[in-house]
Design a protein that fits this description.
The chain is of the alpha+beta class and 406 residues long. It is built from 11 helices and 19 strands. The chain is elongated, with a radius of gyration of 31 Å.
């Protein structure tokens, strides 16, 4: 078998010639002639790095393909077995043990990685909270037929073939932020004990409040947060209809006559903007465009009953305000960061959808605000566009150019 003794690369010279007859071509060729030596050194470094990073694969491939032809190769090269140098002890290195808990995933799209990372873990290492839905991370895991949830609590140990220790975490974080693609990330899956110790936001938690309100977060498979009010206390929540009329959202919290905070606000589980989805187990969201019974009337009927069960879900509409500071020399973000496309709902239909196709190469407010590729643009400054026209039953359907103008 072949064994790797050493790796070297030497190049006598490099001649770079750019074809063309323009003045720019002449200048480029002049520069190439002056930079001949730096170019040669750069190519040499790249080749040595490639050999270093892929030597194991290269040797293994050569041994598999040449194993049946060594006799022919030796005769062709006029070599005898006794003429070859013998393998010395210092040539043998102990192979790194393979950790079956380590999994490598490769990101190829130039969009956010889509990782929820815990940066303040007691271990000092970068931990994965989860792969959020709608992100590239989840898609990459599923493309390898892996359940994205197995990466909860895992540790990021390497990027692009390099492993990082406890003292290299800032360098590891910088490597993750590097926008270059493809990017290979190595994860070490968490053991069950470590996963239980990690304080994940999706873990099940139940809180008993002194005022008789009990809040239960379902496990990560449920998107509904249930609030059970068991004592004779006021609900203390103000509701307002969402912009598309699909649901009622939490618009504020009430106080009692003495100004004290009521149950729903005190436990901190119900947030401003959360949508009321269930009342005593009854779904109160619109379904397929049909109006459900009036939510506020239903609350008026059963609101005084105890126990009272209210279900809440996170809002599905993301409102993004894009502003541009014209006083700064370098402008990042703004309306131009969004690359939109128009999709017709039918061959003869006037209705359309305006969908986010991609982000321009800028870390803008929309990308940082949790907007994902494939999301529908439905309102611009309150004006319905795309699928938003259908939600509010508008007869006007602005096309893509008009929406961008808005």
């Amino acid at each position: 078998v072949l064994c790797l003794n050493d790796r070297t690369c030497s190049i006598g010279g490099i001649e770079l010639v750019i074809q063309g007859e323009s003045r720019i071509t002449w200048i480029a060729n002049k520069l190439a002639s002056y930079l001949r030596n730096p170019l040669r050194e750069y190519v040499t470094r790249v080749i040595v790095t490639a050999l270093t990073n892929n030597s194991g694969w290269l040797i293994d491939t050569l041994n598999k393909n040449l194993g049946n032809y060594w006799d022919l190769i030796m005769r062709t090269a006029s070599l005898k077995l006794e003429d070859l140098p013998k393998l010395s002890r210092h040539h043998i290195t102990q192979a790194e043990s393979i950790d079956e808990r380590e999994i490598e995933l490769v990101w190829r799209e130039k969009v956010p990685l889509g990782l929820n990372i815990l940066t303040n873990d007691k271990s000092g290492l970068l931990k994965i909270v989860d792969f959020p839905r709608g992100t590239q991370a989840r898609q990459v895991a599923q493309s390898k037929q892996l359940d994205p949830d197995i990466f909860k609590g895992s540790t990021i140990v390497g990027v692009n073939g390099r492993k990082y220790g406890i003292d290299d975490q800032p360098i590891l974080f910088a490597a993750l932020k590097d926008p270059a693609r493809p990017k290979a990330i190595m994860f070490r899956l968490a053991s069950q004990d470590n996963l239980q110790r990690l304080d994940l936001s999706s873990s099940k938690a139940t809180t008993k409040c002194t005022n008789g309100s009990k809040v239960e977060n379902e496990n990560s498979t449920s998107i509904v947060k249930t609030v059970d009010i068991v004592d004779k206390v006021e609900i203390g929540i103000k509701f307002a209809k969402t912009q598309d009329g699909y649901a009622y959202a939490v618009s504020g919290f009430l106080r009692d006559s003495s100004g004290e905070v009521l149950a729903s606000e005190k436990n901190g589980e119900v947030k401003f903007g959360d949508l009321l989805s269930h009342v005593n187990g009854t779904l109160v969201l619109r379904s397929n465009g049909d109006e459900k019974s009036n939510v506020l009337s239903l609350l008026g009927e059963v609101g005084g009953m105890r126990p009272l069960s209210l279900g809440f879900v996170k809002p599905y509409l993301q409102s993004v305000i894009i502003e541009r500071n014209v006083g700064e020399e370098e402008v990042i973000g703004g309306p131009n960061e969004l690359l939109l496309t128009e999709i017709k709902t039918g061959p003869n239909s006037k209705e359309n959808k305006i969908v986010l196709k991609d982000f321009d190469q800028a870390e803008g407010v929309a990308e940082a605000g949790g907007i994902f590729i494939g999301d529908n643009l439905i309102f611009v400054n309150g004006i319905p566009v795309g699928a938003g026209c259908r939600l509010v039953k508008s007869d006007l359907h602005p096309n893509l150019s008009k929406s961008i103008h808005f």
